[in-house]
Amino acid sequence: MNINAELLQFYQYKKLVKKKEVDSILSEAARLHIPVREYLLTKEITTEATELEALADYYCMPFIELDMLEVDKSLFNKFSLEFMKKNKIIPVSIDRNGTLLVAVGKPIDFNAMSAMAAVFPNEIDTVLTPQVQIDRYIDSISAVLSTSAALNDLNAAGDDKLFAEKKTSTDIASADDVVNNPSVRLVDSIIKEAIPYRASDIHIEPFEKKVRVRYRIDGDLQERASFPIEAYPAICARIKIMSGLNIAERRVPQDGRINLRVGGKEYDFRVSSLPSVHGEKFVIRILDKTSFRFSRSDLGFTDDENAVIDKMLMRPHGIILLTGPTGCGKSTTLYSFLKEVNVPTVNIITVEDPVEYTMAGITQTQVNTKANMTFAAALRSILRQDPDIIMIGEIRDEETAEIAVRAAITGHLVFSTLHTNDAPGAVTRLADMGVPEYLISDALVGVIAQRLVKKLCPACKKRGKTNAKEMEILGIREPISIFRPQGCQFCNNSGYKGRVAIHEIMHMNEKIKNSMSKKQSSEQLRNLAIDNGMVSLWTSCRSLVLKGVTSIQELMTLNIE
Question: Mean pLDDT over all residues of the chain?
């Protein structure tokens, strides 16, 4: 039996593949001339995490997430970052016996082990770690070193101030001048460093004597670097050239875009400039546009919530709304729904501001207010394009709301977002926009309210008994064990790493629809929805606290009980 067939047999034992799939997988992998592992990952039959965990058993190796390891960075002096990334290895630590522990992304790589043995003659132990975590860790180290080097060069280069003083606006527009300036490497490093840190936004803010750089990570801003204000004109020039902004214009806000390939992926950076007292402030939103692979489970939906959403998505017409504050992942959830209903027999058209992810098989339209291409104007045109499903990025005004609701009651399935605190509040908001309540009752299929809460860092979260105040908040009478944030090197001492969505789903059944005709308040509608099975955002977050996913501090900040 060859290694591919033997491995597949083991995967079958681990229930990663089904017995009836084995022969077709082997033949397809042979036809494409690729290993079975690569075929399974490419076709998304397995993920790197599930596959590596099985491989660890197969090769009798320990499997561990990189976050759980305390890496001794002084060992990086023995191996270059290029060598580590190419061979998917990270030296972790040396124990008292002199044995080197190495995290590897490939279960058996004799060439890499031989190269390491030539540098480190003592015994080497290995643990299996997901390659993507190794790449991200090395990229973060490399980006930090690159930014530090660029900052040192900037501080050492006395010609930066001269550059800012001598050049006119027209001269600064010269690409050659900008590229040869130390500021260029600093801007490139700041942008690229944000990727491995999982930042969603980059803030570059000028003050009287310095410029501050902050990343928004897991919803919070964290300072990453600062540099002298004298260099800022060159920094501005570089950002504007990259994003296609007008270099000579400093008096009004501008918007632009940067497309870059970082770590083998295509990223879209949305750039916004704002004039301030000490110069223009830039905020750069980061979007990974290579692919959209989020499923509902990835986004935090429970089995019970998925059962309700299945009923909503099966409706041939009506309107499904996502509500919540800016930055809570509403658009991401909508895209996951579109991905599910995107089949060749359906015509899907979206109108967005801006288009965040491009999806094959879907016609996506971008709002352009300067050309009078508003949501309402785009919607009127879309309805003449024979759509089955329409996605509206946001319902912002009365005209858009009315067109969306009327499209829903005339045979179209409509997805959109609103800014409300909870699910029942969407009904009140539509009514405030002038949509008659009988139309809302007729058109609305359901409302999903969403929030993002920070996840406790798995490497450092600490278990402890609840105190009296925490018991009161959780509504329990006896002490229980919950997890609290601590802070370590893997979470930048924040105690949190990553975020997860919580949801409140109001499915419009007959009882709720009938109550709307009685013009009940939002609070009365909320109580009725809960009586009919809706789980509140607060209750959803509370369950995550009890499961050790998030902290009671996150529950308290929601203020949505």
Answer: 84
**Listing from the earlier edge strand, what are the strands of the sheet with 100-104?**
89-94, 100-104, 124-128
**pLDDT tens-digit readout, 246-272:** 998 999 999 998 988 887 778 889 999
Distance CA 561, CA 555 (A): 9
Return the sign of the alpha-carbon dihedral for residues 197, 202, 206, 207.
negative
Q: Which of 355, 338, 357 is nearest to 346 (CA)?
A: 338
- Would you tell me how many other CB atoms lie within 10 Å of the CB of residue 246? 13
pLDDT of residue 166: 41
- DSSP label of 368: B
Half-sphere exposure of 346 (CA within 13 A, CB side): 18
Dihedral sign for Cα 50, 51, 55, 56, please.
negative
Phi, psi for 297 (deg, rounded to 5): -65, -40
Task: Give the distance, in angstroms, between the CA of residue 405 and the centroid of all CA atoms in the same chain.
Answer: 30
Instruction: Give, for 83, the enclosing helix (H) or strand (E).
Output: helix 81-87
Residue 55 Cα distances to 2, 37, 48, 133, angstroms: 16, 10, 10, 17
Verdict on whether the full-model pTM lies above 0.90: no
Q: Are 505 and 305 in contact (CB under 8 A)?
A: yes
Please give the helix or strand (H or E) that residue 102 lies within, else none.
Answer: strand 100-104
Relative to beta strand 389-392, strand 413-418 is parallel
Buried b (16+ CB within 10 A) or exposed e, 437-472: eebbbbbbbbbbbbbbbbbbbbbbbeeeebeeebee
**Residue 229: both structure tokens together:** 């204000």
Measure Cα distances from 161 to 155, 187, 232, 497 in Å.
10, 17, 9, 39
Give the span between the Cα atoms of 282 and 275, in whole angstroms. 9
Distance CA 316, CA 338 (A): 14
